[in-house]
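Shapes recur. One chain:

:::
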Amino acid sequence: MSVAMARNFGRAVVAQVALVVGLCSLSVSASAQTYAFLPFQPWIQATQQNADWLAGKMYKELKSARATLIPFEKVREAMKAVGAKDTLSCDEKCLVAIGEKLGADFVVAPTLSLQKKEQSVGVVWLWKMRQVNVKQKRAWGEFQRMCMCPESMWNGIAEKLVMRVLTYDPASELRLPANAPKAQPTKGPRDEPGMVFVPAGPFIMGSELGEGDEFPRHIVDVSAFYIDTYEITNAEYNRCTKAGKCLPQRYRNDKALNQPTQPVVALGWDDAVAYCRFAGKRMPTEAEWEKAARGTDERIFPWGNEWHPEWVNQHADKDGYATTAPVGSYKQNVSPYGAYDMAGNAWEWTHDFHGFTYYRHSPPKDPQGPESGVKHSMRGGSWMYDVPFFVTTHNRSPGRPWIRKQYVGGRCAKSL
């Protein structure tokens, strides 16, 4: 995961266009179809200038695929005729109606959002393209990409998004088996105080939404395990320190960070391992952590796919707490299995070494991460990172094991 500052996008000089795309000459075989693109709409903190600039990139890629253009006014007329106020508010039924007016086979609704980092890290862009099959009157793929990336990467992103739209086939999409167990609070075979049970079974790990180390999406079968309901607290860690099994916490005298029910922070990877061992537990693997956070429906956040900044401690000065919040303070910030604060509050160490390309060859059953490495994977984001990018269930952050920062903590797991 990169945290490089996203550069300014400069002045946009490309006019907004609406397109009907013919798949006449793609590198993949496909029968000719028509695609109608609604105006590229900016939202949150993105500007029309940003959207126009990306529309130009998309337009270039569509032309290289021998796209056929349709006058923008005709799409506007179709939108007006069906009562569509804008691209963002046009739902599936609305998109189908527009396609019928235009005689298109598919309609695509593209949006661009900007999520600014108010403290120090940068900005995050989110491209989203919703597609409908007009003849079948149903959704036909939703394509997203979230990136803290410079302008130089936009051409490649635009190319990939266009190819995803033009070649999408739901029959070939990666899916869990129909009999895969649904994620929900489940009672385990034994009682483990302070922990929730995650049943055995497959889930889809990774995402096309994020950065390169989150690719590709792949099915992972995870054995049953328990994971802590909450992050390790100061009170719990202090018991380990008093027993002589853990090193003293770095910020133990800082009143903004040392309250008993706050998550312990400034843990190095070895500190987290030592505490979990003291508690009769172990570190969760990355696969275990991600399954516990997102369940089996590929949700973006522990609670679902919609962003709710008020449900997560990821911008501390707006929630009444100067830094971390007492564990469990955000009642909606709960995973399908009942684990709290897996988004925000404190980054959480996992067992695994971080491998940027590990997902390309990881084993399908209980992956343990690369055999060696310099950094370990951290998950979940923290109170210092106020953009949704960092608190998604699939985001990965490599950290050197000896770092002891005021935003890094952990939670433990236990095998059956």
